[in-house]
Amino acid sequence: MQTEHRLYYKDARSLDFLNDESVHLVVTSPPYPMIEMWDDTFIALNGEIGFALAKGDGRAAFTLMHGELDKVWRELFRVLKTGGFACINIGDAARSTGGRFQLFPNHFRILQSFWELGFDPLPVILWRKQTNAPNKFMGSGMLPAGAYVTLEHEYILIFRKGPKRQFKTEEEKRNRQESAIFWEERNRWYSDLWDFKGIRQNMADADLRGDLRRRSGAYPFLLPYRLINMYSVYGDIVLDPFLGTGTTTFAALACGRNSIGCELDPKFAGFLQEKLQAPDLPGVLNEYHRVRIQEHLKFLEQYKEKGHQPGYVNNFYQFPVITKQETGLKFYQIDEIRPKTRDCYVSFYAEKG
Ligand SMILES: C[S@@+](CC[C@H](N)C(=O)[O-])C[C@H]1O[C@@H](n2cnc3c(N)ncnc32)[C@H](O)[C@@H]1O
Q1: Which one of 86, 106, 117, 279 is least enclosed by Cβ atoms within 10 Å?
Q2: How far, in Å, is the centroid of ligand 1 from the Cα of 175?
Q3: For the chain, which domains are there?
Q4: How far is the CA of 106 from the centre of ligand 1 (A)?
Q5: For residue 122, is pLDDT > 70?
């Protein structure tokens, strides 16, 4: 198996380099409207936003910022295949403008936009981002009635374009079965509350971490890694129109999916080139499979200790699994990542024994 990973340093408001119905999955996180760190990004997209903010007209700024994101959402609807999914990570903003403090409900505005485009909204994930920061409580402290509850969660909005995807041929069915996840992973991953605190599987984060990642609103590796496993199969094409430090590309590489990343700011090019050519990258990404298998074996011990018996055996690894759906599950590990051009990389895989 091999996959291809393309990078474009372009404005995602026009994805004219992509054909209609050409990608299987979108996983992304846009710049967040009304969060100060993204003000300049939005002002560069539309100068009116700067005037609205300067006037203290937060509602006008919010509307204009989402107007720019809407152009990207329209493009996503065009390039996504029928039956494909879009997963959008977004947080709301709480901010004072014109002397008034209020919530700017980004998740609600994006949901509405996708709804109007014709996407089918699906149950959302609340990503709990608990913080111990002393400034997490906003407003008048212990005195009623001007204190506000904390903002310690973000959303992962999930949409499907059109009817369910069909897996018709024997080859498509086999590939879907190989792409299965473990039963116990299903129980955690398809839950509406995600809390990555205390999760060990953050090796790639540790390795990809850097000053640029901290300053760029990067999401944890585990976020696109889970979503890609949940909403696509081996060999699919995953698009991130707001690529930033490339977390989605790295997750797609680990998951044996092709990827397309689009990023407006060319300052990420050097960072991505360096990370994609790092000799230890295959090892870092492959570690995920090893840990998942290890955690499955640990889970089996606990399952048996509780007096349960797994009902099936995985065809490839010969270890017990809980359901028939996991019998075809198989991991592919990266042998080598080779640059084809500066902005295109090919990854070669072998079955993980
Ligand atoms: C929240 S960050 C994404 C971070 C990314 N998920 C990661 O893990 O590094 C949003 C990114 O969108 C980029 N961006 C903003 N407007 C854009 C546009 N019109 N087209 C493409 N990228 C854009 C910003 O430069 C920023 O890197």
Answers
A1: 279
A2: 32
A3: 2-279 (3.40.50.150)
A4: 16
A5: yes
